[in-house]
Amino acid sequence: MNETRAIHGTITCSRVFDASPARLFAAWADETTHDEWLPAPEGMRYVYEGRDFTVGGRERCDMRRGDEVLAVFEHHYLDIVENRRVVWSVRAMMPDGTLISISKNTVEIEAADDGARLVCAEQTSWFVGRSMMEEHEGGWKTLLDGLEAFLTRSSES
């Protein structure tokens, strides 16, 4: 058990995309599409197992460099409203099971004048003895950049 005191943080970000709410939601919901745009850190990749994108559904995601597992993420979908919202929890661990963090993530989609606005909120407790706020904020920016690039590419084809 990790005895380090929890450090808490909240991140909120948003972006308007040139896409309909339905297209934006599909990018999150469809397994193949999701894998196309979700960027992993340089030199790493995500490997999903048991993906179940339903309320109450669970999945596991390993972050790997080559064959080495660097971190394990267990996702649990708490609420899904088609074309509107996805809420899930994430339990992040080291490969040996040491707890890194627990978070609740909410993504809301709303129509905007020029497409759809995506609003993301993450509430996290870190158990590694330090805040990883900067890393998580950077992760959200990279994630939204990857989604934007995918939507641009797929609209051009």
Write the CATH homologous superfamily: START domain
Instruction: Please describe the biggest sheet, giving its number of strands, its sense, and whether it closes into a barrel.
Output: 7 strands, antiparallel
CATH class: Alpha Beta
Question: How many structurally independent domains?
Answer: 1
Terminal CA distance = 50 Å
CATH topology: Alpha-D-Glucose-1,6-Bisphosphate, Chain A, domain 4
Report the mean per-residue pLDDT as an integer. Answer: 91
Q: State the share of residues found in helices, binned by percent.
A: 25-40%
Given as residue ranges, the uncertain stretches (5+ residues, pLDDT < 50) are: none
Total strand segments: 7
What string gives the helices and strands in order?
Answer: EHHEEEEEEH
Description:
This protein has a single domain, classed as START domain (Alpha-D-Glucose-1,6-Bisphosphate, Chain A, domain 4). The chain is built from 3 helices and 7 strands. The chain starts with 6 loop residues before the first strand and ends with a helix. With 157 residues, the protein is of the alpha+beta class.
Short descriptors:
single chain, 157 residues, alpha+beta, Alpha-D-Glucose-1,6-Bisphosphate, Chain A, domain 4, 7-stranded antiparallel sheet, 3 helices, 25% helix, 46% strand, globular
Task: Briefly characterize the structure.
The chain has helices spanning 21-29, 31-37, 133-156; strands at 7-17, 45-49, 58-65, 68-81, 85-93, 99-112, 115-126. The chain is an alpha+beta fold. It has a single domain (7-41, 79-156), classed as START domain (Alpha-D-Glucose-1,6-Bisphosphate, Chain A, domain 4).
